[in-house]
## 1
Amino acid sequence: MRYYEDKAGVYYNNVREDLIALIPDNPNQRVLEIGAGAGDTIVSIKERQLAKEVVGVDLFFLSNTNQDNPLVDQFIVLDIEKNDLDFEKNYFDAIICGDVLEHLVDPWLVVKKLTAYLKPGGLFIISVPNIRNYNSLFKIVIKGTFDYDPAGGILDKTHLRFFCRRNVSQLMDIPELEVQLIMSIHDHPKYKFNRKTKLFNILTGRYFEEFFVNQYLCVGKKIG
């Protein structure tokens, strides 16, 4: 808990444009965000009329933030691994976990648990850092160290689990979900990718592409 409390405010205050872009354009849907931080993303979703109800969940109450914004229908402070949510099953049209699952002891179980709250046809949207990124590998393989970073990033000190692209697919591989999309954040229209790296990927037939990915986005659709 102490490491979370030591993080700068910017860690909790930001609008996840990349994740919002993956939400269907439907003003009548209900959206749940796990790891909602200061609530900026769910407030933005409500302001853009992309949902009639938004609910945020996080470990901490953050004063003087959008957690208290009247546009937020509910903000719940709890540990999602230790507690259930007080909602009916099949309640939400979209569930967002942006850079959350890597912080959990058992993210696979949490994905399954949260999917129960998702309507059939609803979307489970996640983002997960890529441990295979060359910066991380350089530290581990060349420098011979697995130093954690207290400020954040791929080797964030609060990360408990680590994923490559294949593992992201496995994370969402449960009978109730059908993976619709796995993409590098660099391929997202909201992200400006380094031109030199893009050219390098083209010239090398994208063979080394995964080594330059910071983060993967994944969307699963609930079946049935």
## 2
Amino acid sequence: MSGVPHRILDDVQELRKEAGRWLKQLREAKGLSQRQVAEATGTEYYTFVSQLETGRGRIAPEKYESWAQTFGVEPKLFVKTLLRYYDPVTYEILFPQP
């Protein structure tokens, strides 16, 4: 990523942290531990949940539905929200703000 301006990298990192805070809020609202979320979503290590919550990872697209189900969130809304954090350029193209 040597050709990517630092500002963009900083923005991406901040968006990942925001995504992590959102995921943590969903988990806590359901009263689930990180270990319980890992088990429910088929995630091998619960520490991955911790990494996500601190903005140091992404949920793989093939896992979106299991995560949405675990948190009781409608899958389309879950994916749309993650897209806003994980890929803001695509999000803006698909859902332009007036």
## 3
Amino acid sequence: MAAVNPYLTFNGNCASAFLFYKEVFGGTFIHFIRFNAVENESREEGNKVMHVSLPIGNGTILMGSDAPSTFGELVMGQNMAVSVSTSSETEVKRIYNALSREGVVVIPLEKTFWGALFGLFYDRFGVQWMVNYDYAGKN
């Protein structure tokens, strides 16, 4: 069964925003990864946040990152995506193929260095989606 969570993107102030959200909601970060901590990532991103996740409420995970410079200047108001995490490779492929049809693919569905099958796209209505199946412990 797929889980759906909000994903926020920032112009370099993701760390500050998520420290604030942690102060408001409490909890402990599941992930807090900076670009410069990942091998083979562009050094121009420096200390920007590549991915952060903070559980809030009953089962919701607030996720975020700083926009890589290759994405250009982020327009606030267009900085949200729906993140879908699935329980199988078959499910992530089905959801990706269905939602991305007639849309605009930004990152094709592919295996990643963090051990997942991941894709990023806009559907035909302009909604940004991130789909992910985590292989961790499954291969």
## 4
Amino acid sequence: MSEDFIKQAKNIAFLVIAFSAVAYVYQYARSVDQTFPTKTFSVDGEAKMETANDIATFTVSVVTEGDKNIAAIQKQNTEKMNTINTFLGERGVEKKDLQTSQYTLNPRYSYADCNGKNICPPPMIVGYTLTQSLDIKVRDFESLGDILSGVVGSGANTVSGVSFTVDDTTEARQVARTEAIKKAQKKAKDTALAGDFRVGKLVSLYEDIPTSPLDTPRYGAGGNGVMEAKSFASPIIEPGTQSDTVHVNLTYEIVQ
């Protein structure tokens, strides 16, 4: 086989490959052009949704201090927490709405007065503090005030702040989404009329759902963080509502 023939074969192969690449790029460009129109415009729309809060969440803690007898501290702490659980069950709070969020046993130390001394003895453990916390969800707001005061009478030392939320926002969000899309569609028609073109097919739809921070009332311990049950009447709790905004962006093809 001559050297000239080999060169000609290589040139022909190169041309075939180059032609195939050009054809592929052309076909791909056509498909992209058909799928994603080059002339498009976008409009947005938003709608507010407001839903009534139907779940209250708060945390109660039992803090027990004692000497070095850890078993006695645990027994005392457990009895108080069991009393709280029994009380909550009697008020209709289900087990699925209770979750232990903390169980911490910490030593307490005694420190020697080392002023003016060359050698200072190490701190000594004089006792332990056991803290057990329980996260609680209450779905019956009519009993919420009694529960907040009742857990203290059942042995809780502290009650953390109450926060409110909505169990299911699906229906309310769908209503707001429909309204937002209608606003965007109207804006698209008005834009096309002003720009002297027609609205083509919908190319894309994007939804952004920012959540507004919700300020929630607080019901907690004051002073040294320990509450006496006899000093707290049942509070009046106002759950309020939760507001969010549904934002959509629609992209349409421009038709001349």
